[in-house]
Design brief:
The complex is a heterodimer of chains A (712) and B (610). With 712 residues, chain A is of the alpha+beta class. Chain A is 22% helix and 34% strand. Mean pLDDT of chain A is 76; it is low at 1-26, 281-289, 299-312, 331-350, 433-440 and 505-533. With 610 residues, chain B is α+β, with helices and mostly antiparallel strands. The chains are: A alpha+beta (712), B alpha+beta (610). Chains A and B meet through helix 2, strand 9, helix 11, strand 31 and strand 40 of A and strand 7 and helix 8 of B.
Amino acid sequence: MKQFLKLTLIALLPFFLVNGTLNAQEKSEAYADYQLIFGKNDSDFEKSEIPSEFMDSDYVVIGQKTYLNLDRESRFSILGLTRKRVKILTDNGLTAFNEIYFQKGMDIDIKIIKQSGEIVQVDPSGSIEVDRNVPKIYQNQFYNESYVKIAVPNLEKGDIIDFIEEYDFYNEELVIEVFNSISSEVPVLLEKLVIDTYKSPMNTYFKSYNGAPEFVRQDGKGLNRKGEQSSKINRIVFTNEVPIVKKEEIWSREYENSPFYKLAIVPKEIPYETNNDNHKLYYKSSNVTAGLAEFAIQIRKRYLNNSEIKKMDIDMQVETILNGVRFGIMLGIYVVSPDIWEFSRDYRALPGPIFNGIFCNLLDKYDIPFEPVVALNNYYNSDDKDIFTHQEMRVGTYIPALKKYYWMVDSYSFPSELPSSFQGSTIYRYKNSTLSNEKNFISKEKLPFLGPESNLYQVISNISIENNQDLVYNQSHNFTGYYKIRNTSRFLYNTDYVLDIYENRGIKDINVLDDYNVASKAGEFTGKFKRPYEAYQDNEVKKLENLKKWYEEFNITELENYKVHDIGMFSNKDSLKVSANYRADNCLKRAGKNILIPFQQMIGENVKLEEKDLKERTETAYLDHTKNIVNNITLAIPEGYKLVNADEFNVTVDNDIASFKCSIELLGNKAIITSTKVYKQAIVKPENFSKLAEMVTLCYDLSKKNLVLSEI
Amino acid sequence: MLNFRYQYMVVFCFLLLSIDVYAEVKDPFKYNFYDTSVSFEKEKGKLVAVYTIQFEIEALDASNLNFVKQIHYDSRSDIDKVTKGVSSKKLKRVNFITSDAEQDGIFHSDLRIGYLEHKFSRKGETIQFEYMMVYSDLRFLPPVYLQQEYSCSESVATFIDSKYIEYNLRPYHISETAITRENEERTVISFNQLAFSNEDGAPSIGYYAPHVFIIPNKLTSDEVTADFVSSIDDLYKNYKLFTSQTNKDNSKIEEIAKKISDSGEDNIKSTLYWVEDNIRYIAFEYDLMGFIPEGADKVLENKYGDCKGMANLMKEILVQLGYDARLVWIGTHDKAYDYTLPSFYVDNHMICAVLSQSDTIYLDGTESYGDLRKYASRISGRPVMIEDGDSYIISRLPENKLEEHSRKIVAKGEIVDNQIVLDGVLQSEGNYNTQLKQMYYNVGHKKQEWLINNYVRSHKDEVVEIKQSNIDVRDTIGEISYKSRISNAITELQNQLFFSPDINGILFSSDLKSERKVPYKFSRIHNSSLEYTIAVPTGYNVEYLPKSIDISNAFFDVQIELKNVNNTINYTKIFKTKSRLMPPSLFEQWNSAVKQMETFFNDQIILTKL
């Protein structure tokens, strides 16, 4: 089953285990506790017949059921029980269950039900720890310890393995968040989630999407840990009895196309005294609107301090601040809190909210009004009653004076560029003037989907032929939008640009001006700066290797040089511009007096759709974003040769989903090749997939053709 | 260790090599020195071996400053006195983090891994470590390596003479000039070495890394006791001692033996296939259980076993059926040694042998879907030790014959609408067939069709239809008949057609570096061939065929040929390797073959309209 782990612990708070013992026994605690909750004969696991349509599977999950009990009023304690019953149908199924994995600290009960009806208890002692990923069937989304495994004796085809895991742990500040797709690679005949929780301290939020069954709320029907029903305890139940086997269609996304649910369980009030705003935020989580509002308040409260900086020209200020945050972080200035910056070698990872919070903090120091913004992702049909999970939320900042949004998602794109993953998102903006009025301070907007022109990858190539068998390239690349973000780290392996930014774009000023910044101590800053800079230098070798690999689609044999002309980070309109000279030896074919040039050497690789991709498309295709790929190629034709099949490459397909146009014009001894491939829509419904396929297939077929140069 | 866990190599195509053509990324660390000193000490009346290891490591890469070194030990060894510091005078005791270990999926009860760790603050810094490995059972002394995972300016191994024991050194890949005696009390071996090879196709380190085995000879003092292995006789005695501890309760064997006997098939073959099909391979090493086979009844009851358990089960079944079946110790090709080395390090696997006056048949129960007498590549040609009561027999498994292990495609083709359409049959025999079956059964039921398609289409053609397949039939030559097409194969120009019958047909993709010192290891010997006939379309004539290639040397044969026979193009491509290890001396010929093939496949067949 594809399950997306979404168990969130509050940052920096420990996760304690108790009673982490593993017992070998005939009657396990897990089995006894399971019976206490669900009785001696749980009707959910009575079936053993496999529907005929699933008999070609290696194994079938007859049932999988997870039970959570959060029955403590004073602290957030969880008892978990997960039971899975699996029927093995093939040798490969046997191999999958030769060894059973579970986690340290779990009590485990494993039974094998033979075809004769005999039940064999498996002794789980003698387990050994494993230090690698375990198969999905054994993964548990509510518990996170290292895995052990045991060998299962006397397993045969037709056997049913029935195992129960019990895990008991508590954490004082735990919030549970779950994303769970109910489609899976193997059939799951019954999937069930049952959660019992005290009414008073806990809020439980849940929502089903894409046709998943709805949760059932049973107020006052929950059990305590002794198995006794209590009117103080609520129960929610999710049941799915329609197996959904995952499809494997190109450009499909599970959480757009398949049924899933989201679940959040949070205490209504923080069960301890704290002044930590982070904690308050988490415990405020409820429906989307209130959750986002709380988040906005927290950003505001956290970062509106220390307004000591005099006003400067706002454009310059914002740019300076932006660069300070973006490139200071790239240089290894790590932010412990908004007021404390530290150096770290791990400069790659910085959570978006902190990244954004630093920006807000600095804006505030310069007295630049701003408004925190939160955005929900556009992956599925969310609405105001959505479940608010922290993993999905992205944050930004709106500066009213400039009427611009800033999305601090990475260091490479200019922050007022709308990242493709934000396009189509619903955003909520906290307005400064209405702090006290929770109902009115949120404004809601929908971000647009940008057209293909915003994601451009243009290649300008001058290509010549040497020795009648080698190609020599002089290429310029121009990246915007998505392509810029994706490729900047690849091309900017050199540290010079970072130094340039440091010297000329105001990072020094930021650090000197910021009284609260440990980096403001100039000597310390300089000393600490050297280390990450050295790390950058040593990374150069590795990054250069990666860069060379990027050209592999052109069968590169030697990268002679390349240069970054514009790092594309300082305005929306900037593009990343690089040029490269390289050669691809021995890539041309000979046919008598003709030279054959694989057209892929001109326009690069293209996606190949397999037969199955072209038949019976059932799921919507998600392409991440619209895009525009342009090739402007000048091919120098060797003296004594002429291009004789140019007409074959003059092709066009154009529909409302995608287009491709290629043309070749002969100018003297040069062939001017122009190709433009446009993905006009980021989301393509199944009924329109053939239009996309038409374009993709044409591109692929053309790339497999050969240009023919014939001796004159 | 007596476990060997094979890995299924998903090799769909002829593409054997893909070697990075770019410069190597430098190591993040280097050893400035790495000293190992071996001595023998008395401990509570027992003799123990103490390996004292001291090294200095230097950070070379500011982007990778966390040094971690794993140290393996078990119930017969211990790690002690772990210290570190900036120089030998300032070493301080450090906490040594250890954990239980799974290694290659094997169940170990006693394998532990310790971690020597240091976080450098900048490159150029150095740190020294020192620790002691104490081996309480001299039968299991590991070799001392003079080559490490990073390059080392000076690696020295010192073997101190002992008043308690006389021992010999057995050096591998070490010249005599590197070995010196000092003051008649110690032997010193000194090296400057590059790191272990991380090059593609590098064999196991025993094949190239300098290392030394310590072979105890005799005790020279009454003050101590010790068990050790000083000869092959000793090795066998220990093996017998271990196997004598196997549970002999074989009450369930009779039933299985009868079932096999009643099948009417060859009993030896049926026994092998029954075990392959019904006993799942799971590797165990529980202390000395790494050497003691699980009892046959227990394996039957569990329906799983490791190589020893499977070998013992087969032996017991066959003995029940009246055969002279024996246990056999063997080192797979990962082991660079033979029975001139008296050490447990010679072997890592156990199989069964059936002896008769005329023949010896070996049975490896871990090779699922393996055919009788078609030995897995990893054991073919390897020396074996066969139990023989109080004595033993040293012998060798037969080398695999190329003609018994092959992958062959024969196809008839025609040119239709700019495509080459093929009607073909793929035949796989021996190891190829076993491997295909293993992949077929392990990939999962729903992906079996996908697997066959990909196995067949290794020549970049698209499979349109699998017409027939006997892949699920045991003990036959595998045969898959299919239809496929090579799209976009033809370039048409006025009155001519240009094409290659085998797009991307090159056998190996890039050069082996001339400076490489380490042999190239193939997973097995290769014998693959492709035979296409392509009918020349009506109204066309064959104007040109690329020149054939015929390369044959001590290691490999490459034959690629195009012929026009009655207006039908016959295309043949044959690739054979004659052993698993290609020595560096043949790299130049290999690289030359790459160039010739590039030229061949860049040259096109030309058909001209009449």
